Amino acid sequence: MANHPRAALITGATSGIGRELANCFAKDHYNLVIIARDQQQLERTAQELREEFGVKVLPLAKDLFRPEAPFEVYDEVRDRGIRIDALVNNAGQGQYGLFTTTDIGRELDIIQLNIGAYVTFTKLFLKDMVDRNDGMILQVSSIGGELPGPLQAVYHGTKAFVTSFTEAVREEVKEHNIKITSLLPGVTDTDFFRKADMERSKLVQGSRADPAKVAQDGYEALLAGKDKVISGFMNKVQVAVSNVIPDSMVAANLHKMGAPVDGDESAHQGTRY
Fold it and tell me: What are the coiled-coil residue ranges (predicted)?
C-alpha cells in the first residue's frame, strides 16, 4: 500500500469508457484528476464520484485539441502537489466518411487529440514515474489500430500509432517498476459515434459493448501488467483473422461492414465535442 494518497489522471472522463475507468480507480480509493472540455459536465461528474466513492476529485476543463493543454494540466497538477500514480489517456474522436470529403481541419484536430495529447501526457508523467521507479499508464487505443479502416482512415491511423508507440515505450522502461498497457475496444456504446457522424454506419447498427465491461477489462489488464488487451471475444477473433489474410482483403471487408445504411459515403457535418 502506498504511503501517500494515490491519484489517477483520466482524460475524457465524463462519459463512456473514461467515466467507467474513473469508477474503477475510485473503487480502489484513488483520488482523481479528470479532464474534459465541458466545465459543467466535469463538475457534475466530480460530484457524483465524490458522493459514491468518497474520493477527492479535481476537475480540470481543458480543450485537448490545443497542443498547449496537456502542458497546462501537468503544470497545474504539479503546482497543487498532486502525484499522479496512474495516467489514463482515453480522450479520442473520429470522423466518418470518404477521406476526400472529410474536413482536414477537423482531422488535424483529431490527430492532435488522439496522438499529440497522448504523447505529451505520456512524456511528462512517465519522466516522473521513471524518476521514482513507480507508476502505471493505460492507453485507450482501439482494435481499429490493428485494421485498415476505410471511411475512418484517420481514426484508424491514429490508433495504430497509439498501439505501436505504447509497445515501444513499454520496452524502453521495462527495467523500471512501471506498468504500461494498451486497451483495444471494438464498437462500444459511447458518444463516439454521434460525434463522428457515424451513427449511419452498418457497424454501429448492431450490438455495442458495455463501456463498464471494456473499462474493467482494461483496468484488470493494467493491474496485471499486461502489454495490451483486446476487449471482447469477437473483437479478438476479428483481429486474429486479420493477421492471417492480406491487408487489402481486411480493408475491403471492413469497408463493406462500415458502409452507411443510406449509401452516402461522403462526410456529413460531425460534432466537435
Answer: none
